[in-house]
Design goal:
- With 235 residues, this protein is mainly alpha-helical.
- Helix content is 67%, strand content 4%.
- The chain contains ten helices and three strands; from the N terminus they run H-E-H-H-E-E-H-H-H-H-H-H-H.
- The chain has helices spanning 23-36, 48-55, 59-71, 90-113, 117-133, 139-156, 160-167, 171-183, 186-202, 205-229, and strands spanning 45-46, 75-78, 82-85.
- The protein has a three-stranded antiparallel sheet.
- A hairpin with a 3-residue loop joins strand 2 and strand 3.
- The mean pLDDT is 91.
Length: 235
Amino acid sequence: MPKAKNNNADNLIILDREINEPIGDYAVRCLEYNIINMSLLPGTFISEKIVSEVLSISRTPIREAFSRLEKLNLIEIYPQKGTMVSLIDTSIVEETSFMRMVLEKEIIKIVCNNHTEKDLKLLNRNIEQYGKHINTNRFYELLKLDNEFHELLFSIADKKLTFNLIKDFIKHFNRARIFNIMKMDRRRTLMEHKNILLLIKEQNIKKLIPLMEVHLTHVKDDMDFLKTKFPEYFN
């Protein structure tokens, strides 16, 4: 078992429970938000008992939430020893980056040839919202908008099922991306999204493909720098 940091559950950001939201789903959503948002840092020890107290729900749904989050590679459970927020696994980040690049290079070809004016407006609105938040510390909101931009591309290509199939798989990857938003140049993402939209309008597949390759591999390349600066968060 890796050496874990002190229990940090007292710093949990408590989200509002949605109407009719099952308690187990609520527990997962709260913990997932805090892990991806870095409120619970990689390597942090979390206690079933303390999380239960902080969220004011029983320990059974917390135990179930831990099990679900373990399957997403967001936590590691060590029987009789403890539960720890998993370190950012570079191999998962690299493989997810590869998967997204392969898929989205094909998605962008479809989008280039099969978009409507309404589609362009939705992409532009997303870019405008990203720009509004760019100088704030609302890192999770920026990540959400970034994800929504790419989800829109899948939707325009009529490949929503494909996006839904990879949605859970990229959650571990999202921690590297939010770390990237926190520590690297987030304006780069904004400018590249603007250029992607411009090239879609021009139906310029020749320039779009290399741009998508660069855009989707930034997080992998930046990770080398982040690992040097924050080695305790990676494995």
